Fold these 3 entries.
Entry 1:
Amino acid sequence: MSHTQPVVIEETFDTSIENMWDMWTNGEHFANWYGPQGCTIPVADIDATVGGQRRVSMAMETPNGPMEMWFGGAHLEVSPLTRLVYTEVMTDPAGNPMPPSAMGMDGNKPFVTEVTVELEDLDGRIRVTMTHAGVPAGSPGEFGWRQAFEKLVAYIA
């Protein structure tokens, strides 16, 4: 992992802990909020078991026309209703890992990053703390996560 500070986002939601868990582990829900504004998630296959795979595509319009990005990964830790840890790597549509530079991104970006999601029930409100190690704070990746959390707030409402 890099020596820069990871992206950390903490947000509190008015929902049940079961519903929030589903937002992260059920592909249908995940597809409705993940990614920055203007993106769609045509594929969100999530096997939320230890060793289970993730396969997510993100589609967006750019000034150069439509663009699609694919992400894969595996679940390292699955503690229902409290903690989810998974790896994330850019892939081609077939799921083969690709370096970030293949998508025109910074060549110093780690090949594999790690997302940790922690859920805490605060008397009926749910605090979500998401840490994305390998994606530096202040980067476009943080901007994308912040927009995704805005979409999550709206989706739950």
Note: The helical segments are 17-25, 27-33, 140-156.
Entry 2:
Amino acid sequence: MDEAQGRPAFTGLMVHRDPSVGYSLLLPDGWQRMDLPDDGGTLYRPDPADPTTGLEVGGSDLGTEVSARDLAAIRPGFLAGLRQLPGCRIEQQEDAAVGALLTLEARLTYRQEEAVRKRWVRLLYQGRTQVRLVAEGSSEERFGYWESMFLTAFRTVRFGDWWAEATGIEWVETPFQSDAEKAPWER
């Protein structure tokens, strides 16, 4: 990454896959991965020296089907949840229902102690599944620096398997047991 030039540089992409929920996305290669406790998802950090800047991804089975008619009920809860952050200022919000896919996203700033942080949240729903992406910068400047990298993940998330398209090997054919047994793109 070339901070002197004012923007990060791609060195490659890796695939984040979650076969248990059924989604995948592409993100910059080389980011530090950390699995969050209690199945809270996975955190990817571009810079270990800046632990509060990164991308969190996770998914869950809601136990009930979600459809386009549910968007009007989901939207207020989504926004109310974001507004609970101290000093929250929602800069941009949009949502859509396209066939069986629902998507909501917002960009916002909030205060954490003395710091003003910037966050971008995207929720996707299909059937019984919810996928969550949260990109955050330790400051508005750090968010701006990494924004193009966050954009790649936010726009490549999909219900399905990127890796299967590239290799022809479905994730159900590849049982992963431990991190040591996983292929590099799975870690």
Note: The domain at 11-186 is CATH 3.40.1000.10 (Protein Transport Mog1p; Chain A).
Entry 3:
Amino acid sequence: MREARFIDESSARAVVRSQFPVSDYDYAANIRRSNCFNVVAETTAIVGFASLLVEATPELGSESWRQYPLYLGVIAIHPDFCRQKIGTLILKELARLSMIKASHHAEMHLHVSSANEGAMKFFRARGFETLRQEGKYSDGTEGNLMVCAIKALKLSS
């Protein structure tokens, strides 16, 4: 697990597209932004990517994202590497970076589709709670706004 570098952008984009083929936003481009923590997981190639928006600006993120100082825009694991604790390791690294570089923020936020039961279960098992249903995805499913105190993240499993 490590912070993403500029040369990781195309590989990170491929991992995101493997999970979210119709996403309207190019999350891998966040690697070029200073107000995001971007993390990659790699074996012989990059197999996981996440981007955490730290301080939102008008040019980065939707209006709803800008309401939350630490906002997990995306976490994606290549399908061949799912269920191998890579997502947990990525969250652990994002929490570590947040405590060091953005310690003035105590909570991490994210949206997840109510139809994505696997993601909902994953985040709940790590301490996230649903605050409310908020927004709709392009497929018509409800979005759930979830939050977790960084120090309360359950990252041992």
Note: The chain has one domain: 2-152.
